[in-house]
């Protein structure tokens, strides 16, 4: 029994046992359903082996929505625990695990795949390309992300969840204080998914720089593509830091090295520096593409070209540079000295300037625009004031002397959520409604969408505004209970009501998807919003090859100018199109990486060796494989285009 005891949950509870039963039942249900409807072949051909950027985008999107609800359950449990003083819904250990996994799931396994979904769908379309530069690497990126997410999500039923916070500070994350394998799961889930993200960064930088349509200079690229480029440059520079930090942390836990220990020459603050050198740029990896989505929506529903295109690009470049110069503001109170604090306080406030430029450019675009309030536009308009609250409180936190009052309180929690929820989640929901026709070939219900937007936005204020006040009154974050005499009860009860409101809002989103899937017409135009950039020049549904003829670009809003000003987009004749073949290798490598990570978590060295050999064997096989893709002939292209034209 000693061997099997290693896989037991160290702190079981009825919720954990219920989760085990649910996982088994859902898994059995999926297997039975696929078998009954004879869908195994379809699943393998169309999804598990696909290298089509549009299908990969859908897989990212579905994963992100699933993780949104997974992390949302954790959030509801935390707010329920704190709704009353000295509550016993969760014990201290379970609460530690929940706030750790909530942060990890929402940042790494919800927000990141949401961003990747839109990048995968939009970047090739916006630059007039037929696919990304490296389609198989793109598929591998998804599967590495996915197995990393699954590795983290099995932790709470096999071996125990990580419990040292989403930042996993040492020495708390060391073996002395985190004896279970939970932190091992943290290290390997992030390592595997981070590798996939790094590959994505390289892939999309290459795609944007080399695969743009004729005439599309860098300054003629749409704003979302610019935001994707800057975000992926940050990825390429930031994620290797995380990779090395995780490697060092893993060696401390498994091989008793002393990189981050408090004895034998170790330095626990080294982890904090490494983590935030990655962690603060990570915020802008999320925010910049979200800003790109808002830019596209504002221009479309104002029926105006985006004000200050060059200044918007410049502000994103400046933000990407400054993002690497502010990391120390995360530990102003940890003893690095007044001079260092002053320098990083200045850089922290400086980064607010290019962000403000973007806000004013959006407002100037709206000014005198012919504004249409659709669901995407409503989310965008609600984002601006709520995000501004988050931004202003960020400047408050950037004052190093004042941070001694704010640090490690609920004020900080409120600030972070008032930035990320309107700045990223609202953008993803706005983009979801805006681009749903390109994802799934029908539109979401606009009336339901507006109700959902108002419920989510008002609930966000209700959930997090009270935390500013309880934080200023001294309520510490990460505390699982408090005394009634503190006076925090009313703030936490209001926050709990807000959290319930957020849950209702996301349930409305699910109902909207269900209702629209069942009742929405499939006979929609390719450009239902009267949009401005090239992704709307494609058919609905989008053909495998995206563009039968690669467009030629003369301006920053090529599609709009083609519709309104007579620019000619397609100046060539049909010719055969080269496309990559599907491949099962990315999925297989992903599965082997799952075994590799799981084996490392439990120090199962023989499976580690076998899976490592398997990974390298797959790489060698790919290196020796002769697969030159395939061609879609002109006659087939004409048939597809004629059928699409008839639908329009």
Automatic annotation (TrEMBL):
Listed EC numbers: 1.10.3.-
Reaction catalysis annotation: 2 a quinol + O2 = 2 a quinone + 2 H2O
Residue ranges occupied by any Cytochrome oxidase subunit I profile domain in the UniProt entry: 38-554
A UniProt-annotated Pfam family: COX1
Keywords, ordered alphabetically: Cell membrane, Copper, Electron transport, Heme, Hydrogen ion transport, Ion transport, Iron, Membrane, Metal-binding, Oxidoreductase, Respiratory chain, Transmembrane, Transmembrane helix, Transport
Membrane topology: Multi-pass membrane protein
Cofactor binding notes: Binds a copper B center. Heme A3.
Superkingdom: Bacteria
Pathway annotation: Energy metabolism; oxidative phosphorylation
TM stretches of this protein: 15-37, 58-78, 98-125, 137-158, 185-211, 223-248, 283-301, 313-332, 344-366, 378-402, 414-436, 448-469, 489-514
InterPro entries: Cyt_c_oxase-like_su1_dom (IPR023616), Cyt_c_oxase-like_su1_sf (IPR036927), Cyt_C_Oxase_1 (IPR000883), Cyt_c_Oxase_su1_BS (IPR023615), QoxB (IPR014233)
Functional note: Catalyzes quinol oxidation with the concomitant reduction of oxygen to water.
Similarity annotation: Belongs to the heme-copper respiratory oxidase family.
Official protein name in the record: Quinol oxidase subunit 1
């Amino acid at each position: 029994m000693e061997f099997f005891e290693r896989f037991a949950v160290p702190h079981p509870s009825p919720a954990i046992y219920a989760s085990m039963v649910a996982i088994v039942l859902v898994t059995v249900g999926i297997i039975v359903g696929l078998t009954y409807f004879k869908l195994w072949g379809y699943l393998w051909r169309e999804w598990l082996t696909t290298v089509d950027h549009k299908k990969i985008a859908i897989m990212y999107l579905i994963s992100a929505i699933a993780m949104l609800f997974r992390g949302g359950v954790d959030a509801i449990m935390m707010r329920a625990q704190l709704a009353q003083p000295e509550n016993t819904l969760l014990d201290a250990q379970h609460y530690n695990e929940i706030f750790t996994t909530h942060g990890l799931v929402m940042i790494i396994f919800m927000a990141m795949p949401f961003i990747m979904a839109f990048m995968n769908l939009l970047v090739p379309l916006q630059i007039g390309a037929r696919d990304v530069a490296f389609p198989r690497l793109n598929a591998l990126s998804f599967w590495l992300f996915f197995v990393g997410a699954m590795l983290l999500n099995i932790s709470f039923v096999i071996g125990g969840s990580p419990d040292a916070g989403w930042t996993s500070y040492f020495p708390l994350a060391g073996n002395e204080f985190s004896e279970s394998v939970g932190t091992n799961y943290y290290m390997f889930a992030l390592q595997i998914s981070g590798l996939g993200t790094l590959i994505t960064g390289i892939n999309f930088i290459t795609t944007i720089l080399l695969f743009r349509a004729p005439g599309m200079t860098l300054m003629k690229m749409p704003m979302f593509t610019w935001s994707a480029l800057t975000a992926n440059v940050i990825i390429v520079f930031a994620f290797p830091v995380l990779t090395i930090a995780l490697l060092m942390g893993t060696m401390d836990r498994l091989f008793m090295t002393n990189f981050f220990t408090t004895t034998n020459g170790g330095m626990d603050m080294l982890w904090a520096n490494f983590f935030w050198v990655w962690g603060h740029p990570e915020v802008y990896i999320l925010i910049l593409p979200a800003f790109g989505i808002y830019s596209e929506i504002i221009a479309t529903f104002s029926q105006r070209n985006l004000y200050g295109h060059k200044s918007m690009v410049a502000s994103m470049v400046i933000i990407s540079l400054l993002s690497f110069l502010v990391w120390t503001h995360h530990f102003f109170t940890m003893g690095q000295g007044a001079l260092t604090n002053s320098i990083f306080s200045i850089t922290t406030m400086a980064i607010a300037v290019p962000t403000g430029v973007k806000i004013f450019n959006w407002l100037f675009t709206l000014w005198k625009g012919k504004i249409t309030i659709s669901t995407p536009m409503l989310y965008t308009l609600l984002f601006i004031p709520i995000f501004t609250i988050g931004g202003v409180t960020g400047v408050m936190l950037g004052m190093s002397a004042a941070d001694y009052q704010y640090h490690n309180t609920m004020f900080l929690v409120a600030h972070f959520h008032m930035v990320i929820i309107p700045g990223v989640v609202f953008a993803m929901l706005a983009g979801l409604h805006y681009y749903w026709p390109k994802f799934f070939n029908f539109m979401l219900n606009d009336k339901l969408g507006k109700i959902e937007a108002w419920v989510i936005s008002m609930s966000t204020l209700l959930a997090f505004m009270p935390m500013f006040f309880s934080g200023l009154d001294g309520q510490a974050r990460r505390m699982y209970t408090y005394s009634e005499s503190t006076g925090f009860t009313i703030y936490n009860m209001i926050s709990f009501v807000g959290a319930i409101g957020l849950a209702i809002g996301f349930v409305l989103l699910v109902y909207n998807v269900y209702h629209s899937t069942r009742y929405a017409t499939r006979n929609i135009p390719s450009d239902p919003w009267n949009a401005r950039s090239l992704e709307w020049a494609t058919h609905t549904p989008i053909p495998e090859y995206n563009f039968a003829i690669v467009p030629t670009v003369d301006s920053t809003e090529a599609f709009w100018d083609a519709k309104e000003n007579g620019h000619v987009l397609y100046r060539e004749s049909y010719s055969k199109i080269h496309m990559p073949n599907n491949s099962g290798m990315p999925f297989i490598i992903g599965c082997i990486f799952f075994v590799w990570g799981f084996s490392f978590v439990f120090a199962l060295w023989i499976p580690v060796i076998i899976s490592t050999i398997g990974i390298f064997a797959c790489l060698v096989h790919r290196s020796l494989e002769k697969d030159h893709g395939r061609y879609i002939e002109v006659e087939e292209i004409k048939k597809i285009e004629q059928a699409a034209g008839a639908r329009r």
